[in-house]
Amino acid sequence: MRSFSWMLFALLLAATSATHAADRPNIVFILADDLGYTDLACYGSGYYETPNIDRLAADGMRFTQGYTCGPNCQPTRATLMSGQYGPRTGVYTVGSIDRFDWKSRPLRPVDNVTGLPLDKVTIAEALKKAGYATGMFGKWHLGSKPEEHPSRRGFDEAIASQGQHFAFKTDPKTPYPPGTYLADFLTFQATNFIRRHKDQPFFLYLPHFAVHGPHEAKKDEIAHFRGKPAAGGHSSPVYAAMISSLDKSVGRVRATLEELGLTDNTIVIFSSDNGGVGGYVRAGVKKAGDITDNAPLRGGKGMLYEGGIRVPYIYSWPGHIGPGTTNATPINSVDLYPTLLALAGVREPEDYTLDGTSYADLLLGKASDAAPRKPLFWHFPGYLGAGQDSWRTLPVSVVREGDWKLMEFLEDGRLELYRLNDDVSEAHDLAKDEPERVRELHQMLVAWREAIGAPMPTSNDNVQPAQTKKKRTKQD
Fold first, then answer.
1. 20, 69, 141, 149: the active-site residue
2. What are the distances in angstroms from CA 162 to CA 129, 211, 343?
3. Residue 42 a catalytic site member
4. Which of 27, 300, 308, 444 is surrounded by the most beta carbons within 10 Å?
5. 73 included as an active-site residue
């Protein structure tokens, strides 16, 4: 009898858990690669055409001060998956420190970790534990060892691919018809996943390789933009065609949700991993290869100025997130993990540090966008080059609190201060005009680095002349 009672209790508990899981919203997170802040019509482009993403914004909330945790892709992805700032993961950039000629500079960069450490609890693992089916299709970029594959990091299903838009490789190897465009392949995998898991809560992570170089697009898409007048620094038919394919992917995913009756119970998020590849000429960076422009923001990918780290951030969840809303609250990659758990009603992992702050109440209209927010931090203890003896960024740490942004350049201790709401282009350095504010923000930045154990670059005691020839590397 006692055994029967325990069995009945276990069955009731399992049934209750299953019902609770079934009530949870589905989550679809679509991440573009290298898409700039103004590369969408709903963020101001008069050249690129993004009707599906524009509709997503019209159906939900568009953040105007959404940030990535890094100026290039790998640190942002590590933060999104781990919920932790770079000093905890050791992922600051792409590849080793020797990708660029740091030996000609006064500092030796902090060594970079190239895969997400295995002790990190990914957002996929947290959601899977709560009963979610989990799938990832696209650019992983958090390690290439078997144990680092997304299928070993919390995703039930995962196909990784990056590097080419045509004739691409996949891991695991997956057949596709000749001439297939990667964005279309990934979209098919994503919609197929949705169809197969429509009867249970699912977390779909769709990190596109678009619009990263090589800049390749389908011929019919390119033809559509040929002859279209340039606008606001946007002029490339090929790049516009890549954005169009990305936009159509968003449309197909949403159409699948609508077809299956899942729209009202699905949170859809769209963002980018860093700023667009452009704005360098205006920022005085040589040989960086502009393909777009992030104006009015300063700089682009690989820089800690706004053009490198401010990106589109859009949320839609009908009946929960008000349609057509715009929010000016600063949010960061590190905040996504706790926000999604809060929206899904899932507990944060025990004995695991999450550095971000949930903004679920903002999305649900339960908090004002004027509510105080924790400061945002960046720590980039290395170099990102742009050709011989030309740099997109030098080692730098950054803090943003309220309207104010302080940058500390680590080679010489130079401090720059900007009031972003009045000067989004970061044209006016106010450090000399606001010494007390500089002091307060710098103390805050130093205290954060000490608390999180952020390693600092060390002195390069053997500075060498800049290399006259260097193997060309992708500017990640």
1. 141
2. 28, 11, 30
3. no
4. 300
5. yes
